């Protein structure tokens, strides 16, 4: 049975393609999910996608799906600085996770530069646009395989 990676996206990521193209690019979330699914197939892993604008729904998804998963890719969006309940769900799941941001949060406003996830993540991809998800998938897959 192939490994399953959960790909979790937080608030406003459902509006990709409509948001500031200079920060977030022109791809929609569906476009990005298609790219991730194609890469996952090439790597021999399964992906499960989830997006919500509500922190509790993200926590519920992680709690419900983590027992059948091998890792998590998380773009918490605007919850990056305050999503402690998501962090607790990830820690309780005991799964490796990679934090992803389309823009380089470290080059943006001061309040965006802090992440409650960074210290516990196995990696952070920031500023690589949609490719950050692919890099995260490659990294998690290699961790799982080793």
Topology at a glance:
Layout: E1 4-9, H1 21-24, H2 29-43, E2 46-51, H3 55-65, E3 71-75, H4 84-93, E4 97-101, E5 123-126, H5 131-145
Parallel strand pairs: 1-2, 1-3, 3-4, 4-5
Helix pairs in contact: 2-5, 3-4
| CATH architecture term | 3-Layer(aba) Sandwich
Q: State the CATH class.
A: Alpha Beta
> Helical region count?
5
Succession of helices and strands: EHHEHEHEEH
Would you report the number of β strands?
5
Largest sheet: number of strands, sense, barrel closure? 5 strands, parallel
CATH fold field value: Rossmann fold
Beta-strand fraction estimate: 15-25%
Mean pLDDT: 95
Number of domains: 1
Q: How helical, in percent, are the residues? A: 25-40%
| Side-by-side strand order of the widest sheet | 2-1-3-4-5
- In terms of structural class, how would the helical and strand content be classed? alpha/beta
What descriptors fit this protein?
Rossmann fold; single chain; alpha/beta; 146 residues; 5-stranded parallel beta sheet
Q: What does this 3D model show about the protein?
A:
This protein has 146 residues and is α/β, with parallel strands linked by helices. The protein has a single domain, classed as 3-Layer(aba) Sandwich (Rossmann fold). The protein contains 5 helices and 5 strands; from the N terminus they run βααβαβαββα. Strands 2-1-3-4-5 form a 5-stranded parallel β-sheet, with helices on both faces. Strand 3, helix 4 and strand 4 form a beta-alpha-beta unit. The chain starts with a strand and ends with a helix. The model has no long low-confidence stretch (mean pLDDT 95).
């Amino acid at each position: 049975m192939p490994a399953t990676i959960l790909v979790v996206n937080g608030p406003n990521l459902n509006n990709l393609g409509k948001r500031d193209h200079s920060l977030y690019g022109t791809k929609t979330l569906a476009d990005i999910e298609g790219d991730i699914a194609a890469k996952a197939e090439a790597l021999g892993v399964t992906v499960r996608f989830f997006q919500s604008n509500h922190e509790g729904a993200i926590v519920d998804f992680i709690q419900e799906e983590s027992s059948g998963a091998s890792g998590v890719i998380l773009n918490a969006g605007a919850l990056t600085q305050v999503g402690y309940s998501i962090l607790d769900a990830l820690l309780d799941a005991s799964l490796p996770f990679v934090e992803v941001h389309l823009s380089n949060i470290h080059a943006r406003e001061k309040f965006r530069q802090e992440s409650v996830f960074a210290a516990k993540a196995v990696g952070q991809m920031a500023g690589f646009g949609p490719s950050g998800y692919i890099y995260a998938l490659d990294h998690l897959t290699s961790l799982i395989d080793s």
